[in-house]
Amino acid sequence: QSKARITAIGSYIPERVLSNADLENIVDTNNEWIVQRTGMKERRITSENEFTSDLCIKAVKNLMQNYDKTVDDVDLIIVSTTTADFVFPSVACQLQETFKMKSTGAFDLNATCAGFTYGLHVANGLISSGLHKKILVIGGETLSKATDYTDRSTCVLFGDGAGAVLVEYDEENPSFISSVLGTNGEGGIHLYRSGLSKEMNGMKLLGDGNMVQNGREVYKWAVRSVPIGLQTLLEKAHLRTEDIDWFVPHSANLRMIESICEKSHISMDNTLYSVKKMGNTSSASIPLALDLGIKEQKLHYGDTVVLYGFGGGLTYTGIIIKW
Ligand code: ACO
């Protein structure tokens, strides 16, 4: 039984716009190809001196301002990112330094595009078990800094941004209904960024520290596995698709989302995404889509919402919440 509620949300995207027309000047691509295959029109990217911690700090400030919240008494900071400023210290520690919480734990987690929903799952568990009272969960990425802008098959996809939520103890009115997690480590080779090792399962890694993907394989995996995971999640909660007000999948690619929705019998009108104007922002894509949904007055208090993150690992998390 959950005892945790999401009480506030904020977001931030960098000012610099990278449009499809801009990409036409960088690689051999064109607006039609990008829109037809991905639904993306533009994405935001950071300047040279702007990093993931900067985006996360601005997302938290936005949350505090929008909901008149303080973070002084936050007792845990969880930042989901694959593009931290440093290997260590973590972005979460940088946030503590900025906001000066007196007594808080802080760590980054890496579950790629499923990271934000992993963070929510962990926060709900820690609050519901009585270990924590007030947790900041943030998804923040500067993927443009790990993108090879000579590789047209990846550089058109990714953008930068951050989204933050506050999860607080609330026994009377909890947000969390149900969640599922799943992993397919065998598929890790289809989407990676090399680190200390330059080999995976005996295969030489490419990209020189930038993201590398077999787009077709990732696409097939997501479109096949997300509808199955979604069904499991709904059954676990004794809900039907008709009971869901909003579906918020990871904004990897609009065509992928359309295909998942079609297979799952969910209308695109009941789906929130950030992909058209922000590209694929990995961990940040779900909170960015939620915040857009609020700004566009679609998402309301009490709505039943399914969040579904999936990505490199390969790994996924689905969560059903009451907004
Ligand atoms: N502009 C023009 N042509 C291009 C471009 C481009 N930007 N990129 C590739 N092409 C060409 C290819 O060279 C190929 O040409 P060829 O047939 O002459 O060889 C052709 O277009 C088709 O290429 P495919 O890679 O087969 O295209 P596909 O239809 O699979 O679409 C895409 C590619 C959009 C990348 C798709 O596979 C996809 O979205 N995959 C999922 C990617 C994803 O979401 N990854 C992230 C997961 S989340 C995370 O954890 C970060």
TrEMBL record:
The keyword Cytoplasm applies. The keyword Isomerase does not apply. Residues 251-255 are annotated as: ACP-binding. Signal peptide: none annotated. One of its GO terms (biological process) is fatty acid biosynthetic process. It catalyses: heptanoyl-CoA + malonyl-[ACP] + H(+) = 3-oxononanoyl-[ACP] + CO2 + CoA; (2S)-2-methylbutanoyl-CoA + malonyl-[ACP] + H(+) = (4S)-4-methyl-3-oxohexanoyl-[ACP] + CO2 + CoA; 2-methylpropanoyl-CoA + malonyl-[ACP] + H(+) = 4-methyl-3-oxopentanoyl-[ACP] + CO2 + CoA; malonyl-[ACP] + acetyl-CoA + H(+) = 3-oxobutanoyl-[ACP] + CO2 + CoA. Its main location: cytoplasm. This is Beta-ketoacyl-[acyl-carrier-protein] synthase III. It comes from Alteribacillus bidgolensis. The lineage of its organism: Bacteria, Bacillati, Bacillota, Bacilli, Bacillales. The gene is fabH.
